[in-house]
Amino acid sequence: MSASPITPVFVRLKLSLLRNGLRRSGGRKAAYIASAVFALLFAALQLIGLIALRGHAHVESLVVPAVAVLGLGWAVMPLFFPSGDETLDPTRLVMLPLRPRPLVRALLTASLVGIGPLFTLLLLIGSVAAVARGGAAFVTGVLAVVLALLVCLALARAVAAANVRLLASRKGRDLAVLSGLVIAVGAQIVNFGAQRLGAAGLGELDPVGNVLQWVPPASAIAAVHAVGEGSYGRAVVQLTLTAGALVALLAVWSRHLTKLMTSPDESTLAGTETAVRERSSAGLGRLLPPGRTGTVMERGLRYVWRDPKTKAAWVTSLAIGLLVPVFNAWQGTGSVYFACFAAGMLGVQMYNQFGQDTSAFWIVALTISSPRDAYVELRARALALLLITLPYATLVTVLTTAVLGDWRRLPEALGLSFALLGAMLATGAWTSARFPYSIPQEGYKNVAPGQAGLAWISVFGGTIAAAVLCAPVIALTIWLNVSARGDDWTWLVFPVGTAYGAVLTAVGLRLAAPPTARRLPEILAAVSKG
Amino acid sequence: MGSSAVRVRGLWKRFGQQVAVAGIDLELPAGRFIGLVGPNGAGKTTTLSMVTGLLRPDQGSVEVVGHDVWRDPVEVKARIGVLPEGLRLFERLSGRELLAYTGRLRGLPGAEVDKRATQLLDVLDLAGAQHKLVVDYSTGMRKKIGLAAALLHNPEVLFLDEPFEGVDPVSAQTIRGVLERYTASGATVVFSSHVMELVESLCDWVAVMAAGRIRAAGPLTEVRGDAPSLQRAFLELVGAQGRDAGSDLDWLGGGSR
């Protein structure tokens, strides 16, 4: 044990870092203060809300999962925002002569300082207030809040220490690009979950709460509820579980810290990296058509999996395209026609094709010397897209229909979906040639500065044009549905819509090819700003 | 061979107010190792981009092996190989996949592409890293895989923009060896650089560029003249004599603007 304790040093370091947040330039300072105020306001509102929920039946079924989600948040936070907390990065301390045990204690104490821990503390206090009944329960509550908070912090630290190598690497940066997506999709799921709760009541959550009451840190709050109900035995087990988890997490963290501090920095060991074989479509190449078509398709499909920006765009489209129609149907507010949403979301991937290439488009540009080459290139990109979107749009439409039980309308929904998909591919190909823009490779932005107008014209104008192009099929559907004996003929929309979509795509590609071939240098210049 | 590999007439390019290339006339002989030298910002990259069809000139014409770059792209694009500077590669492909992709895009048969890729990866000392993603490559490895991709279809003229920039000496020697073997077979290499010593030791024909204009062009010995080195001859040509020789501030003097 060292004579002078290092814990106060780390706490002061953390306070300085927080204060330095205020010392930045105008805009960033304002953003910093605004986010802090917003977080605290949100926490205060939650606190009030949780206290208001007090005494409500099944309240523990809401509070226990909420604390579990909070714990999950702490676990994934360091993976998505590795630079969020500078004191989280143990590699910065490698040069200091510190022993693991005092270091762990100091770091844990220091991590109690900050907006995140304060937010968590408020939420935990609110949770206890919501579920506690009787003096004994409140006393247990104090212990539970401390334990749960420490488990959250230790969890974040242990995850960060265990993944420090990953976070410093290219893969870690790729992961950060995907974080926006997790938040977007997560928000959708929470949104639908909340709507469902609003309709069905908190009792819906009982089974979830029953499982999570044994999972730290939620188990600590469950213990408070158990004491209130007089089940002291259960409370003891739940508190012991939480304490055990804390000890285990601290041990894991301490072990990783020791290893980090005593082994050389992996990122500087050049040449020891083994070549990673990233094969996702190794066998696929043989199944694709020969020549330019197959080559372009193979690269496109590889990029869906390997390029973080492309992957994020695809997963967002796939997830939202599925969630909106199916969840709406599930809640009874949907219609079969919502399934077209999937086709629309996926069709958007055809937009700004060359922007997705970034400045590597020069390789493509050097091999296009005629409108015919441009046509084959665009057609291959559309085919690669169809390979995923066609089965997926079908699946979403069938699922939506199944949830609604409205099988009679399946053919027309499919026909409309395919017509829309065809129109999106056609307008996407054409706008790719006419209004290309750069997609920055770092960060969350999807448009380079100064090109927002272009992107707006491209995607928004294109989508509206696609909807207008679909008008004949929509008109046919409406006409068949309102006319006297039309119901017998609504199946016609399926072949007609499919054929119409195919024709639109073919025409769109034909129209897009000449401007692509003609404008190669202009397209390259437009997509090279990222 | 007496014919010319590249013929440029009255080439102009402006970016807003700035004139990047100010009326270039240039004739590059075939079968030579040609260096395009000049300080940073002289217009080398802009010129090479226009010659290879990646950038549209405001004015002027470019012919490569007798075909107009803008009117006859089918003939030109099949005959040239390019390694640009400052543009990305498809970095989420492995080195081998990038070659397979480029070769097939160029219309070569798959088996032939794979055979040539194996040999190029071997010669360029990339065989060990062929399954690594290009995004994880070092600068030298990127230049080498870019060179391999540019050579894959055995072009008649190879355009390389700063192929030795940021490249370690071992990789530089490898690249050099490959290029020397390639020109010995009668092909033409045009490469840009601001390192005079490198150009002097590699090239037998040079064009000196500064402030968007060609200051001198011809066989190395002619351009060098009586000066002890190409570096000195170059400094004289761009009128940088007498100032701090280490500075690259070509916009200070030399030009009339």
UniProtKB/TrEMBL annotation, chain A:
Transmembrane segments: 30-51, 63-82, 103-130, 136-155, 175-194, 235-253, 312-330, 336-354, 382-407, 413-433, 454-480, 492-513
Domain of life from the UniProt record: Bacteria
Coiled-coil segments: none
Keyword check for Transmembrane: yes
Keywords in alphabetical order: Membrane, Transmembrane, Transmembrane helix
Keyword match Transcription regulation: no
Annotated protein name in UniProt: Transporter
Species assigned in the record: Streptomyces djakartensis
Classification of source organism: Bacteria, Bacillati, Actinomycetota, Actinomycetes, Kitasatosporales
Automatic annotation (TrEMBL), chain B:
The keyword Lipid metabolism is annotated on this UniProt entry: no
Domain ABC transporter: 6-236
Subcellular location: Cell membrane
Molecular-function GO terms, alphabetical: ATP binding
Superkingdom of origin: Bacteria
Coiled-coil ranges (or none): none
Record-annotated membrane-spanning stretches: none
Record membrane topology: Peripheral membrane protein
Cross-referenced InterPro entries: AAA+_ATPase, ABC_transporter-like_ATP-bd, ABC_transporter_ATP-binding, P-loop_NTPase
Name of this chain's protein: ABC transporter ATP-binding protein
Natural source organism: Streptomyces djakartensis
Taxonomic lineage of the native organism: Bacteria, Bacillati, Actinomycetota, Actinomycetes, Kitasatosporales
